[in-house]
């Protein structure tokens, strides 16, 4: 029997304030990389909830998604031999207060605010090509209402 292919489902936040974008610096097997605040969808949460959780864990900021920027599919072949396909849902929204006492997720070194030009210039340090693509789509005004995503109540039921 053939194994079913399953992409890794991730969420990301495109956060802009005063012309700068909030990115995280994170330790990876390829060294220090830049990424949108992002991570994997976990059991019993909607994509919007996952995005808010990931932003809090990686930046110590509250975040409320207000629109879907896009849905992206990308395959990454790592030098380690890993071959992973990611299905990413990227959101924009309202950034809340930062909790100065909250520790950042393991592997997150810190956060940086970059201009669009700085994001473009740092592409060789991006965790994936989706970092820049999400920012470019945001800058182009791409926004979809959150209503295009539906999370059925069955997601929250315990097995």
Automatic annotation (TrEMBL):
It comes from the Bacteria. Residues 4-136 form the Nudix hydrolase domain. Its cofactor is Mg(2+). One of its GO terms (molecular function) is nucleoside diphosphate phosphatase activity. Its EC number is 3.6.1.-. Keywords: Hydrolase, Magnesium. Coiled coil: none annotated. Monomer. Belongs to the Nudix hydrolase family. NudJ subfamily. This is Phosphatase NudJ. It comes from Ramlibacter lithotrophicus. The lineage of its organism: Bacteria, Pseudomonadati, Pseudomonadota, Betaproteobacteria, Burkholderiales.
């Amino acid at each position: 029997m053939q194994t079913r292919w399953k992409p890794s489902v991730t969420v990301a936040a495109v956060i802009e304030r005063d012309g700068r974008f909030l990115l995280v610096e994170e330790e990876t097997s390829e060294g220090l990389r830049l990424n949108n605040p992002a991570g994997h969808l976990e059991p019993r949460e909607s994509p919007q909830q996952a995005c808010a959780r990931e932003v809090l864990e990686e930046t110590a900021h509250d975040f409320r998604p207000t629109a879907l920027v896009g849905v992206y599919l990308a395959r990454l072949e790592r030098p380690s031999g890993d071959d992973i396909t990611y299905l990413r849902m990227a959101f924009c929204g309202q950034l809340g207060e930062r909790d100065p006492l909250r520790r950042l997720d393991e592997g997150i070194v810190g956060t940086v605010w970059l201009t669009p030009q700085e994001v473009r210039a740092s592409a060789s340090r991006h965790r994936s090509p989706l970092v820049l693509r999400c920012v470019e789509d945001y800058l182009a005004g791409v926004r979809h209402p959150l209503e295009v995503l539906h999370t059925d109540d069955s997601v929250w039921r315990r097995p």
